[in-house]
Specification:
Layout lengths: L1 H11 L2 H5 L10 H11 L12 H16 L3 E2 L25 E11 L4 E6 L2 E5 L6 E3 L6 E9 L23 E5 L15 H10 L4 E5 L27 E4 L1 H8 L6 H11 L5 E11 L1 E16 L10 E7 L5 E2 L3 E2 L3 H20 L6 E7 L7 H8 L8 E7 L7 E5 L5 H14 L16 H5 L4 E7 L17 H19 L11
Parallel strand pairs: 6-7, 7-8, 8-9, 12-15, 12-16, 16-18
Antiparallel strand pairs: 1-11, 2-11, 3-4, 3-10, 5-9, 6-10, 11-15, 13-14, 17-18
Helix pairs in contact: 3-8, 3-12, 8-12, 10-12
Length: about 500
């Protein structure tokens, strides 16, 4: 009986496993990846905000690691006139040939920063940055000491729709609004951005804005670091903070409502319930805004071993950026999001460089500014470093080291690739679930729009520390981290060796 089982097992193992030396997974170590994560999420890099000095240090570190592996630079002709370090560093400090430059806005929250409750012209409570409140990533600078007015969802639909600013005077006052948008509006306001809400308040004469999470949500969002503010112009003199719900309750004490009740009244009637809160807030923020800062994608190429297939490419990618620091008082490590994905890309580069070389070529790329709206991956898709028509598939890693399971996303867009991935997993440890989706997702989105098949690697229940100061290396699930990276190596190896032919992407 045992002999029959062994024979069946040998028959069931695909030819790829007999052809290729899969000892390459032995080069993948959670401890090695953890060392990379620890550096990328260290305080010295200040949260790796795209356009910051900390981000350039992270990019340079990864470029040097690619160089050690003997990978070819993905770029050969882009050197800017200046960098965050000045002109003297152009020729010597960084590995510029690995950098794909583009411009982004960048906001350095320098401090001082404060948010206080005022009673009788005296400070009644000082709120702590990082715990009680967070500055929005693209907050303006300024000082405000004024009465607070609650304005619901912060929507001003002047075309006969819902309008939180009807019959309420906010001139010279601080506006408090829900950060999220109403779920009952049939999608009409789903894309109402943070900046759009700020502009509404500013246009009505407000001097600052306080965002609060929806109190009736099952798990109301904590104040998080975020640079996803929208495409509207920057409001340079308009402070913007996200306050914890406990802090927000202090400002409604003199009314007949709690924050939960304020949301309930609006949601049940589907009409505004804006009120003066009869309390005063003091807000001060100092920031330096750059509308056209430099940032970079980091790209390196491993040339394939087959004379024909080396002209076809696999993309292995992740975003390197996170959401930065604020006033020297708090920074967002981004260990899982997404130092983990970046370290996994580097570890896969090591494995493919040290093991048997793949037949197809591989482009390893680390994107900037995913956090502000997928800007790095969009820039790459519009300015590809290898021909898109010769790009067979892309594999993205985002938040792959915290949680309790493995998800292979984007399978509905390219079922043949997803089935290959699932089959490979069944022969490995069978850890991935059956939930998947269509449309790319995060940094796969713009390649999906360019008809590039792809798999999105992510762990399940991965977001407990998302954009919080607690997203640190010690929270990571190292055994799961190693498993998902080894599984990725096995899947990508099959594709890189020619066992998958590019399929039509389903829209």
């Amino acid at each position: 009986m045992k002999k029959i089982f062994i024979l069946l097992l040998l028959i069931s193992v695909p030819l790829y496993a007999q052809r290729r030396d899969f000892s390459g997974i032995d080069y993948i170590s959670a401890n090695d990846m953890l060392k990379t994560v620890e550096y990328l999420s260290s305080e010295s890099l200040e949260g790796r905000a795209g356009g910051s000095i900390g981000y350039f240090l992270a990019a340079d570190y990864m470029a040097k690691e690619f160089l050690k592996l003997g990978l070819k630079p993905g770029i050969s002709n882009q050197i800017p006139k200046t960098t965050p370090y000045g002109n003297d560093d152009i020729q010597g400090r960084f590995n510029y040939k690995f950098f794909q430059y583009f411009n982004v806005e960048y906001n350095d929250i320098t401090g001082p920063v404060k948010f206080n409750l005022i009673n009788d012209n005296k400070i009644a409570r000082k709120y702590k940055l990082g715990t009680d409140f967070i500055c929005r990533g693209y907050t303006g600078s300024g000082y405000a000491n004024a009465q607070v007015v609650f304005c619901g969802y912060g929507i001003a639909d002047d075309e006969g729709g819902y309008n939180d600013y009807n019959n309420i005077d906010v001139n010279g006052k601080i506006v408090m609004v829900f950060k999220q948008n109403p779920g009952w509006a049939n999608g009409r306001y789903n894309n109402y951005s943070i900046r759009k809400k700020a502009w509404n308040a500013y246009d009505k004469g407000a001097v600052a804005i306080i965002y609060v999470s929806l109190p009736n949500d099952k798990n109301p969002q904590k104040p998080i670091g975020s640079v996803m503010d929208g495409e509207e112009p920057h409001l340079s003199g308009f402070p913007m903070i996200h306050a914890d719900l406990n802090a927000a309750e202090d400002f409604v004490l003199k009314t007949r409502y709690t924050m939960k009740e304020l949301q309930t009244v609006i949601d049940e009637k589907k009409s505004p319930n804006s009120i003066e809160l009869l309390t005063t807030a003091e807000i001060e923020i100092n920031a330096k805004y750059k509308p056209d800062a430099y940032t970079v994608n980091v790209a390196a190429i491993l040339e394939g071993s087959d004379a024909q297939l080396k002209n076809e490419y696999i993309i292995i990618c992740a975003h390197l950026d996170h959401v930065g620091q604020q006033a020297g008082e708090v920074y967002f490590p981004g260990a899982n999001d997404n130092a983990s994905g970046s370290a996994a890309v580097l570890e896969l580069a090591r494995a493919f460089s040290k093991g048997e070389k793949p037949k197809r070529s591989i482009l390893f790329i680390l994107y900037s500014n995913e956090e502000s709206g997928l800007q790095g991956s969009k820039f790459y898709a519009e300015n590809p470093l290898v021909p898109l028509e010769n790009t067979v598939a892309a594999f993205n890693f985002d938040c792959v080291a915290y949680g309790d399971g493995i998800t292979l996303g984007n399978g509905l867009s390219n079922p043949a690739l997803w089935n290959l991935a699932k089959q490979t997993d069944s022969l490995y440890k069978g850890q991935s679930g059956n939930i998947t989706w269509k449309g790319g997702g995060a940094d796969l989105e713009h390649l999906y729009k360019k008809n590039i098949p792809g798999i999105y690697f992510v762990t399940t229940n991965s977001y407990a520390h998302l954009h919080l100061p607690s997203d640190k290396p010690e929270t990571l699930n190292l055994s799961l981290y190693e498993d998902i990276t080894k599984l990725a190596y096995l899947i990508i190896s099959r594709v890189a060796d020619g066992e998958y032919q590019k399929e039509e992407v389903l829209k």
